[in-house]
Amino acid sequence: MEPRFNMFTNEIAVRFGKRFANASMVISASSLPKTTQELVALRVSQINGCAFCVDMHTKEATAAGESPTRLNLVATWREAVGFTEAERAALAFAEEGTRLADAHTGVSDETWAKVREHYDDDQIAALIALVALVNAANRMNVIVRNPAGSYEPGMLAETLS
């Protein structure tokens, strides 16, 4: 399967991608736990049906030491054991912040209160930015039909550096 459009060979797309990658580096360097970052990115990508990003975030999480069991259960985290209360708050936030068309209220006050309970202001800023950034990446990849399966951990950073 070939993408409709190669975002890695077009000059404008590559220039945009580098700036997009720079934004993601701010989130990566934040105090929001790396595991939480990858779980949230994976869940958002699952909701949006972005195969490329599901592949990427699963492999990046695995490379960072995440267990296959937890990765397999991200889609059903509400019914699964093994996620901390903080991770559950972040996953609920990710779902509600992604499913805006499904729930016109966006992130509920209950979820926001749980996020505030577990994360400081810098971590919340990173979480907000992460959900927004992954949603944007998902949309780009779905639009161009970027195929999944060939991603290797660290590949995107190398491509856009």
Automatic annotation (TrEMBL):
Keyword Nucleotide-binding: no
Carboxymuconolactone decarboxylase-like domain location: 21-96
Pfam families: CMD
Protein keywords: Oxidoreductase, Peroxidase
Keyword Lipid metabolism: no
A GO molecular-function descriptor: peroxiredoxin activity
Coiled coil start-end: none
NCBIfam families per the UniProt record, alphabetical: ahpD_dom (TIGR00778)
UniProt protein name: Alkylhydroperoxidase AhpD family core domain protein
